[in-house]
Each structure stands twice: as C-alpha cells, then as structure tokens.
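Duplicate of #3305? Posting structure anyway:
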C-alpha cells in the first residue's frame, strides 16, 4: 500500500473530526446554495402563477395527490430512521447504525421508484404549459437531490461496514443525515406548492 505523504514530519489523518472539519463547512455551503436555488424556483413559480387567472392553464390537470402523499410519508420516515441510526452510533451501536442506514437507503429508493413511476404515467407534457414546465423542473431537481443523497448513504454505509465509525467518530454520518433532512424539508415545500396548491386554489381572483 502506498504510504500517504507527510506534512512537517506528520502524516495527516485520512478522516477529520470536529467543528473545523472541512466536510462540514463544505456541506453547509452546499446546502445554502441549493436552498437559494430552490427558493428562486419557488418564487419564479409564484410569480408566473400570479399572472394567470387559471392554474394550471386550461387543458392541463395537476397531478393526483396519492403518490406524492405516499412519498411524503416515505421521506419523513426515512428522516426518522436516519436519526435513529445516528443515535445508535453515538451510543457505540454498530448494528443500529448499519440497520438504520439500510432502512433509510431502502426508503429513499422507494421514493425514487414512485417518483419515476409518476413521471412515466404523468399526462402533463413538459412543453404544454408553464405549470407543466415548473412541475418537471422543480420535482426533477428535487429527485436529483434524492439520488445524490442515496449515493451518500451508500458510501457512508460502506464505511460503516468497514468499521470506520464509533461513539466518538461519526461525523460523516451526521453530515449525510443533515443533507438528507434538508432534502426532506424541501420536499414538503414541493408538495405544498407544486402538488397541493393547484388543487386548493386553481383559479385566482
């Protein structure tokens, strides 16, 4: 195995823990930028909607709520299992960590499968109206974040099975958990704005 280079005669650690960990700050900045992008999308959606008397426009029907509501339950549950996994490793429980992350990953896959199934059966067409464009852009952007989160969970779970974490060393689990909670919170806004609001107030005064 190739030996890692030394800095001033000291070999730097492969994984860094603590409040000055660059991964934590990088994740915080990433979440901030993504939150800004989602906010801009939501503001653009409401700006365009404010200029329409009927939303969605005549000829387009908003998606049914069954799958989005099921997906909401799935994502909220996955946040719960992510928290459970992190609490497990804080107590030194490798089994709880691995099981919690495995369940979280499975729930994320279920969300992704249902979202793709919705796209496959959706009657809306991207080019049909402004609402349809917003629907696919906003939900597609969120789905991409779910996929990225799943890749993070896969990597962290691989590290968990290699025994990289313990009660005093589990920062990667915490960081991925924060990203996953962010994705789940954003979904609540997507659900309310893109899915529910057209059913509640399809016609504006």
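Output from current build:
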């Amino acid at each position: 195995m190739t030996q890692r280079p030394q800095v001033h005669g000291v070999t730097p650690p492969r994984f860094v823990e603590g409040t000055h960990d660059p991964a934590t700050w990088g994740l915080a900045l990433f979440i901030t930028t993504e939150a800004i992008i989602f906010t801009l999308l939501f503001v653009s959606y409401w700006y365009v909607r404010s200029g329409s008397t009927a939303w969605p426009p005549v000829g387009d029907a908003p998606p049914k709520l069954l799958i989005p509501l099921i997906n909401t339950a799935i994502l909220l549950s996955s946040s719960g299992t992510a928290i459970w996994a992190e609490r497990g490793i804080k107590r030194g429980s490798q089994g709880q960590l691995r099981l919690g992350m495995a369940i979280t990953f499975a729930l994320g896959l279920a969300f992704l499968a249902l979202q793709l199934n919705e796209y496959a059966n959706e009657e809306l067409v991207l080019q049909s109206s402004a609402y349809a464009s917003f629907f696919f852009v906003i939900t597609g952007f969120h789905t991409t974040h779910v996929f990225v989160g799943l890749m993070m969970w896969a990597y962290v779970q691989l590290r968990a099975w290699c025994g990289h974490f313990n009660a005093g060393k589990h920062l990667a689990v915490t960081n991925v958990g924060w990203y996953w909670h962010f994705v789940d919170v954003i979904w609540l806004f997507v659900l309310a704005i893109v899915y529910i609001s057209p059913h509640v107030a399809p016609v504006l005064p």
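Confirmed duplicate; merging threads. Residues 130-161 form the longest helix (32 residues). DSSP finds five helices and no strands in the chain.
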